[in-house]
Amino acid sequence: MSENPLFARRRFLLGGTAIGAGVLLSACTSNATPDSDRTQPVAQGGGDNAEPGEEVTIGFSAPAADHGWMAAMTRNAQAQADIYSDVVFQATEGTNDVNQQIAQVETLINSGVGVLIILPHDGAALTSAGQQAMDAGIPVINVDRVFDSPLAYRMWIGGDNYRMGVNAGNYIGERLIAEGVDDPVIAEVAGIDSLPLTQERSQGFADALERHGFTVSNRVSAEFTVETGESETANLLQAAPRIDALWNHDDDQGIGVLAAIDSAGRNNPDELFVVGGAGSINMMNYIEDPESVVAATVLYSPSMCSSAVSMARLLGQAKGMGDLAEHEIPASLTTYSAVVTADNVADYRDVGFES
């Protein structure tokens, strides 16, 4: 089986770092007597972890695939498992009923899976289920919505909500300055304000804009759905006859955001540009269209679920990552919220998802 491109790329990057470190070390110790015991490579923890190894049964539990991003999380997990000949993948039916998800996790625990991936509908509510698995000797990878206690998982992997807002704010601020827009009107269509992730995204956005001397002029919160995205954006547009830039937190609700912009006749890219959030194929298609108001989207990619399966496999085989010196996989992995524009959209279409 060919090596996972993620690992290949990271091995290349680390290799360059190791070479540089080696040169520095030899310069500092050039008068020392060579010691054959010091010729071991720096990174040897994971070995050749792309080669098939001991069979691993991975259990997977996630919420209902009731919107594009969540559906992509589930599909990505299955697709990643399918590329490994040494992985048996057991996925439960997605549910937004917390009690039902707890019961599903307990079923996976009782079936004797080797590793468990849990993307909880509610991190706090599923903490006890994660703890139960860990107590049973089953390592847990907690995806995105974090448990209340680190004792409930072996590894957490997810996105960086604060930096998502920061990167959106920096892109908008830098573009407005480059275009010489004075006293710009900047709008924000957030998700659900009661959620910490929405609060973190908004705080990052505000902090980044402040560095450029700007603030959010008009703001509404939606519910991560097309319907609320459209209705709340319609209200926002009525309240703000001029908008120079708009950041929408979520590309799924962004379909409704764009519908409201079209209905209001505000779909002129010379008067307004929109930055999305998450990285859907739909928004990437708009980004490639010079007649569209969509200028960019900030990733919060469901590819994190693909990586979760890769990490679960390594956990089950007691391997580390081949390009890290440690013999175990990390305790946490935060994905990066890259800004996708017309200049680089072709590089990111492989991690896009259908809204």
From TrEMBL:
It is found in: Cell envelope. Pfam families: Peripla_BP_4. Its main location: other. It comes from the Bacteria. Residues 32-55 are annotated as: Disordered. Belongs to the bacterial solute-binding protein 2 family. PANTHER family: D-ALLOSE-BINDING PERIPLASMIC PROTEIN-RELATED. This is D-ribose-binding periplasmic protein. It comes from Actinoalloteichus hoggarensis. The lineage of its organism: Bacteria, Bacillati, Actinomycetota, Actinomycetes, Pseudonocardiales.
